[in-house]
Amino acid sequence: MPAVSKGDGMRGLAVFISDIRNCKSKEAEIKRINKELANIRSKFKGDKALDGYSKKKYVCKLLFIFLLGHDIDFGHMEAVNLLSSNKYTEKQIGYLFISVLVNSNSELIRLINNAIKNDLSSRNPTFMCLALHCIANVGSREMAEAFAGEIPRILVAGDTMDSVKQSAALCLLRLYKASPDLVLMGEWTSRVVHLLNDQHMGVVTAAISLITCLSSKNPDEFKTCVSLAVSRLSRIVSSASTDLQDYTYYFVPAPWLSCKLLRLLQCYPPPEDGAVKGRLVECLETILNKAQEPPKSKKVQHSNAKNAILFEAISLIIHYDSEPNLLVRACNQLGQFLQHRETNLRYLALESMCTLASSEFSHEAVKTHIETVINALKTERDVSVRQRAADLLYAMCDRSNAKQIVAEMLSYLETADYSIREEMVLKVAILAEKYAVDYSWYVDTILNLIRIAGDYVSEEVWYRVIQIVINRDDVQGYAAKTVFEALQAPACHENMVKVGGYILGEFGNLIAGDPRSSPLVQFNLLHSKFHLCSVPTRALLLSAYIKFINLFPETKATIQEVLRSDSQIRNSDVELQQRAVEYLKLSSIASTDVLATVLEEMPPFPERESSILAKLKKKKGPGAVSVELEDGKERGDYLSHSNGSSTPSPSADLLGLRSTAPASGATPSAGSLLVDVFSEAGPSATSAGVNDDGFLRFVCKNNGVLFENQLLQIGIKSEYRQNLGRMYLFYGNKTSVQFVSFNTTVSCPGELQSHILQLEPLVEGGAQVQQVINIECLTDFIDAPLLNIKFRYGGALQNISLKLPVTINKFFQPTEMAAADFFQRWKQLSQPQQEAQKIFKASHGMDTEVLKAKLLGLGTALLENVDPNPENYVCAGVIQTKAQQVGCLLRLEPNAQAQMYRLTLRSSKDTVSQRVCDLLAEQF
Amino acid sequence: MLRFLLLFSRQGKLRLQKWFTPVTEREKKKVIREMTLMVLARPPRSCNFLHWRDLKIVYKRYASLYFCCGLEDQDNELLTLEVLHRYVELLDKYFGNVCELDIIFNFEKAYFILDEFLMGGEILETSKTAVGIAMEEAETLQEVTPPPPPPPLTHTHGHLSLTHLPKYVNMFSVLFTDNGGVYE
Lengths: 924, 184
Fold this sequence. Notes:
Chain B: It is found in: Cytoplasmic vesicle membrane; Golgi apparatus; Membrane, Clathrin-coated pit. The complex is a heterodimer of chains A (924) and B (184). By secondary structure, chain A is of the alpha+beta class. In chain A, strands 11, 12, 13, 14, 15 and 16 form a six-stranded antiparallel β-sheet that branches. A five-stranded antiparallel β-sheet of chain A has the order 3-4-5-8-7, covered by helices on one side. With 184 residues, chain B is of the alpha+beta class. Chain B is built from five helices and seven strands; from the N terminus they run ββαβββαααββα. Classes of the chains: A alpha+beta (924), B alpha+beta (184).
């Protein structure tokens, strides 16, 4: 039996809850709920006026139903009525309902605000508190507009009761956080600071949260709070454990207030006033001393509260970063905790030490704990603690211990939890690069990474090792030798094959002198892996082969034989087939000189931020990566290689043969040759002139010619990752006269944000210029950004407006799932507005491969063996916007006889379903 | 500040949810699902803290109930554990030997007690006495204008067969042990 509720038991409610609990199945529960909803609805609609008690009871039932996870679409009005009841419990339930089921129904908000206004002016402290709670719970802009002026007055008025002051302070904080522009600073602000001196500890505790927030935003206006906070802290720290009565928590005086005071001080630099500073240092020392005293209670609450203050004090010491003495003491204290039997304390010690490691005063002291931390990494039972240990090792790494730390992390990787492997791999890769004295160690480390955790080595990591090898000629021979050896292993990870293929293709000649690694041996070794690899890797290997033909003419016949074989030249994969055909042709028609120029060694990569570091930052959020790459060590991002020819897809083309627009890179003659002979942009693509049509052509592809007229050709290449996109526009001047005042602007709908790098205003005749546009998708959208191009050609002003082919589907991340998952999600998205459907006539052929390519181009994952009918296609993906992720499921049912399609989209957002459906319906 | 507080059973049934910032219903469901999955999967005597997205997660089990909250980066994990503990103490003080069923059947009270203790995700009042007084004042207020006297919860009523429920376990009696009561 549950304890009988005091005072106002609502029997009907208890019966209902009990019924629900007795339901044996979800269906029975839904049935019971529907019955109840019908009952409540009829009571609310009935002629008989309900008394307050019944109203309260029904509203409370609705609330219960809502909290069970069901939608509630009525009862709001009755809840609002309860607000104006003069019975406390009725009012209270009304407010609870409003707080939980906020509704931006403006009509209702006005009524609610009215009721709140009445209660605020009632001078009844209990009613005032209820009203303040409601404002804080809802915290909407409308409420801020209505009450942001009134609450500061209540807060600082002399006759306000303490409990109301407390609520007013936190209510104001909530409004300030939600709508800072509506909370105006004024005469009240100085009086708020003095609440730190209030006699009532509860008032100080509540007010300090507000003061801390205001101080962090307006430090100058609130700086008088520093000395007040120090003296308050000093009084608490020096008080006996019983002095503060009710505010002593398990023998610790006012732990919440102490922590808040220490946190407030972290908004400011160390106090300038010597006396204040002396007093504060004294406090901090007392706190550190207390940690060494025997506990006053064995209860965990006692030690938690005490240590909470200690950790907050250490945070402040680290924040000041100016008292070597205190820093070393803090570090020693944390060192003790590293070996504490409480897992929580070990966790927090590892976490705090991470920040301590970045201080020059304490970095060395942190390093002395390396063995303990390594041990934690090896022996902690809890993965979240091991994760903190790995973070700390990363933070304490420097030139002196890098080899040890990297070796430990590598050996930990062999058994590491799957959830943290990828991050560990990134960290090892960064440390190895940052502290590499000789690059052979770096190459060894990365190859070890691939060997141990190949599945977790992301593109960024293996791109990076290639960038570094290409940029450093002292390591190229070693790298070639090492990958050659690594590839000898009977089973090696595909990433190893990629790195091996790339490096041997570039630098295989450096080890070709040794008969054990003669050109043919190298080729046979690579080719022995070929058939086990995925399409992107095979594509890369084919590029390596053509590079071999250039490096070692003696392999030409063998390689041509391979390229000519049916499995290559008739490969069902377009990309592989195209490469085989092109490379075969290239190797047979081009002269040695042309071949040498086209296939010359990759130029060094431009110096940029490491793509790995960027990835780690993204994973951990800004600020989490304290290690910055040293100057001169930063190297180019493989993805945005200056050649302008790389694409982000896994089949990243080594040679840039697929780029539609000529590369603006090193060798113009070779570039134009490639484009002339091999350009993917066939006649059909280049003749496209009308933009709207052009826009739709890019829904399922990212590269091609966007626009062309007599004067100007615009090629486009774009890459998307999560909610970010980067678009390269290539403006080609088709005339022999220069364009002047060449100017481009992009106007984006509000849901997108764009950043465009401006161009020089002159485009020479026959030249091509490249422009980069970065795009961020904030939330889902319909309208595409508009590109406006203006220039003068022979004195005449040209003005072209184009829709940029940025469509919502570009931000898809494919999602693989099994049939069961798919149908489960499909059912979950069963509300009518979540679905969009179109039945339309085929306007192109209904070829399977073409359809598949288009669906893949859409950005979703094409799911096999899901739809019972093999003729149908189903896809899944998640649209990534800054505001939210929208899961999206798709089904396409072709009817070859009728030459019709039925397309069905389901997603969690109606606008997305509709938009994707509209876009895709134009594609078939 | 706390971003949210969730109470759920060992079976993953949500018993109380409090959101201190505006969150869409969809997002709420997602967070609840992820929290229950993540926390329930943790072996006993693990550390009480986790990192999740950009939040710190602090959780603790009391008998059959998990108390779990998400806090911002600069918040103090240890003190948050004590926020949870103080909340349990307050519930216990109000209900007297609080158990999961009290929270199920008197969910509105559990919300009211929370409101006296936290506001906007910050500590409003840490004194147990002060919160107690606030709750009592509310009780007194309702006695001034009493509602129709509620029939006591008894077994005699047809629908109300609470006796089938397995024995519940008081949260305090097993404060730090893992052998909580099992029902459902």
